[in-house]
Amino acid sequence: MAIPSGLDQVDNRFVEIYEQARQRIVDDQKFKGLLIFVGDEMRLYHAGKPVQIFTGMQPIAYTRLKTNGHMPMALLCLLGDVANGDPLPEPRLHALSDYSEMVKAASSELDLKEELRQGLLEKPIDLFNHCVAFMESVLRAGNVKPDDIMKFARDAEKDINAALAGAARAQLNACHERITQIRAEMLSAEEWRSLWVLILGNYMARQGELFLQYFSRVLHTPEQGDHRLVYFEGEDVELALERLGTVMLDTHASQAVFADRDRLHRDVLADETARYLKTLLRG
């Protein structure tokens, strides 16, 4: 094994120093106040106390409404690539039959009367019967035509939007109720002012993600730009905390070196790359 050159040693030591500083800044923020959202959980760190874990960020109404909204998408995924009027392949027929039986077996759990009563839905919707009827018609025919599946999807649009709107209301209500309690009973005014929020989610959800929008409003900070509000794509909390530390440390260094807190939130070579490419690739 080759002995690292002086150059490698110096740069490797930089990485070690950086990682240690990143860990210190995360530990410091946990003391000042940090909220982490992952799945159904919200975790609160502050004042050196043991982490407090609150569940219910995905209440049953949220799950039921979102599941209703997902059913037409499941059918598009099952049938979209074989909707040509030809007999459906046996494996796809079996998959459709299994899904149909699963949906019908869960009819009581998918029922939305309670969500209508709570005002999460503005009017009744019937995605359950719409999807069951479509699945039964396809299973009887043994095939599906492009126009049929497009009509099914278009007819479901309003009810899908209503179900997803209701799911958003249910989750926002649950979040706001808990945050109101935390502000009133657990955090001082100073802790609230210094609080950071770390949200874990998937890639496609980042644009307009529910908790990003909520905390952007209550913390008076942009959804993008990592001002007290950080989004991490994934479910690994330790990696997300590393991302948080990177954001906070780079913000500090960026302000100190460049007098621009966002300078290191993009590639350090980005500006000169854009300028030099005009010369390098001229003509």
Q: Radius of gyration from the CA trace?
A: 25 Å
Number of domains: 2
Strand order, main sheet: write it out.
Answer: 3-2-1-4-5
Helix content: 55-70%
Oligomer description = single chain
Could you report the average pLDDT, rounded to the nearest whole number? 93
Order of H and E elements = HEEEHHHHHHHEHEHH
Strand count, sense and barrel status of the largest sheet are:
5 strands, mixed
Q: Regions with pLDDT < 50 over 5+ consecutive residues?
A: none
Number of E-state strands: 5
The number of helices is 11
Distance between the termini: 46 Å
Principal-axis shape: globular
Q: How much of the residues is beta strand, in percent?
A: 5-15%
Structural class, judged by helices and strands? alpha/beta
Structure at a glance:
It contains eleven helices and five strands. It is α/β, with parallel strands linked by helices and 283 residues long.
Describe the structure.
This protein is of the alpha/beta class and 283 residues long. It has 2 domains: 6-46 and 191-276, no CATH class; 60-169. It has 11 helices and 5 strands; from the N terminus they run αβββαααααααβαβαα. The chain has helices at 6-32, 60-79, 90-105, 107-110, 113-117, 127-141, 146-185, 189-194, 210-218, 237-258, 270-280, and strands spanning 34-38, 41-45, 52-54, 196-201, 229-233. The protein has a 5-stranded mixed β-sheet, with helices on both faces. A hairpin with a 2-residue loop joins strand 1 (34-38) and strand 2. Helix 2 (60-79) runs antiparallel to helix 7. The longest helix is centred in the middle third of the chain and has 40 residues, at 146-185. It is globular. 26% of the residues are buried.
